[in-house]
Amino acid sequence: MIKVGIVGATGYTGVELLRLLVAHPNVEIAAVTSRSEAGKLVSDYFPNLRGHLDLAFTDPSFDQLAHCDVVFYATPHGVAQSQVAELINRDVRVIDLSADFRIRDVELWEKWYNQPHGSPELVGHAVYGLPERNRDAIANAKLVACPGCYPTASQLALLPLIENGLVDTQNLIVNAASGVSGAGRQGKVANLFAEVADSFKAYGVAGHRHLPEIEQGLNDAQSDNDDAVKLTFVPHLLPMIRGIHATAYATLKDTSVDLQALFESRYENEPFVDVLPAGSCPETRTVKSTNICRLSVVRPQDRDTVVVMSVIDNLTKGASGQAVQNLNIMFGLPETQGLEQVALIP
Ligand SMILES: NC(=O)C1=CN([C@@H]2O[C@H](COP(=O)(O)OP(=O)(O)OC[C@H]3O[C@@H](n4cnc5c(N)ncnc54)[C@H](OP(=O)(O)O)[C@@H]3O)[C@@H](O)[C@H]2O)C=CC1
Ligand SMILES: CC(=O)N[C@@H](CCC(=O)OP(=O)(O)O)C(=O)O
Fold first, then answer.
1. The pLDDT of residue 187
2. Are residues 330 and 72 in contact, defined by beta-carbon separation less than 8 angstroms?
3. Calpha distance 310→294 (Å, rounded)
């Protein structure tokens, strides 16, 4: 059994990790940390886990985490970067759900996250945990930086087009909308039910911290000689709990390509990417609580604009499910193990 620890288990991605890992046949949950709930039984705090986990939260302590084979950080950015070096030195592998190690350019990270990076020397050792791009590197990684939720949905939408040099990369657009759990569980007035229900709004339009992450991923996917991509990224807050719908727009350089066939063949062997038949539009409810990204590609009116719609559950493929997918790859397990859930609503 693989002994896992979870730091930050009282948050939304933490409890999603618990939900997935209690059912994982090759995992033993050995340490579950919370500063605020230390000493309390996890199943008293999260009654959905009653009968599935007999463990109490503990304070995050190196001694306890050092006995794990792998530790997930489900913490706000800034936490993992101050703690993981010691674990890695002790041969404990780390899967970080936060943004700490996603961006290779440390100065760029510091600019967007508005703080000095706590362990810049580790950034170059981190593997960006998007299996559909980096499966081989993830398998051998000591430190995996799981992608953000919007970046997962956006990159999976655009990768087939960028990898094949089919679109103008100087004017890419992604309009995306997220459920409120994307903002985390800590209390903020902006996320109160009365603030978000019955309403829909954009935010971060002038610049959201996922912009440099998506651009980095798309730059990696195109040929080295191409100009750096330019993306306009507009996130929105949806009055629902879980789910992201991202719509990507790009101008085709070549309109003769069969885009449906291209997407189907790019993702043919990907267990968690489902390309819908031509003419369909994906719905967030069909991926709720699953690790699936469901895509549709359309060329409206046969003009030169391509529109790709991409839906994921922000807490599953956008965070904890993808983290478990990475765990499976790192430990040589079947990639889908513990992740076979089907959505409740078609
Ligand atoms: N929500 C989402 O959809 C997604 C989130 N992410 C990323 O995953 C990470 C977790 O997000 P989310 O679960 O939403 O966040 P939450 O705010 O819901 O939870 C954060 C958790 O971290 C713990 N924590 C906070 N500060 C510290 C600290 N200094 N040391 C140790 N533990 C700490 C908190 O518990 P306690 O205070 O009890 O210790 C809490 O359990 C974030 O970096 C987020 O950006 C990534 C993709 C999607
Ligand atoms: C709805 C909402 O607020 N979403 C969050 C992003 C989700 C997320 O957690 O992404 P990271 O892992 O990069 O933090 C936001 O816009 O900041």
1. 83
2. no
3. 6
Cite the beta strand spans of 87-156 per DSSP E. Answer: 93-96, 127-128, 143-145
pLDDT in tens, 305-334: 999 999 999 999 999 999 999 999 999 999
DSSP per-residue codes, 8-48: STTSHHHHHHHHHHTT-TTEEEEEEE-SSSTTSBHHHHSGG
Q: How many CB atoms lie within 10 A of CB 144?
A: 29
Q: Say whether pLDDT at 346 is over 80.
A: no
Answer whether 241 contacts ligand 1 (Cβ < 6 A): no
d(CA 61, CA 113) in angstroms, rounded, equals 26
- What integer pLDDT is reported at residue 225 of this predicted model? 86
Centroid of ligand 1 to alpha carbon of 102 (angstroms): 16
Q: pLDDT tens across 221-255, in order?
A: 998 888 999 999 999 999 999 999 999 999 999 99
Residues involved in catalysis:
149
Please give the DSSP secondary-structure letter assigned to residue 206. T
* Distance of alpha carbon 110 from alpha carbon 121, whole angstroms: 14
This complex has an ipTM of 0.98
Which whole-number Å values give the CA distances from 213 to 29, 207, 218, 333, in the listed order?
A: 31, 12, 9, 28
Instruction: State yes or no: pLDDT of 160 exceeds 90.
Output: yes
- Whether pLDDT at 206 is above 80: yes
Count the helices and strands in the chain (H runs, E runs). Answer: 12, 13
In the chain, the domains with their CATH numbers are: 2-125 (3.40.50.720), 150-313 (3.30.360.10)
State whether the beta carbon of 12 lies less than 6 angstroms from ligand 1.
yes
Q: What is the model's pTM?
A: 0.97
Q: State if residue 318 touches ligand 2 by the CB under 6 angstroms criterion.
A: no
Question: Cα separation of 70 and 309, whole Å?
Answer: 34
> CA nearest 95: which of 103, 86, 108, 84?
84
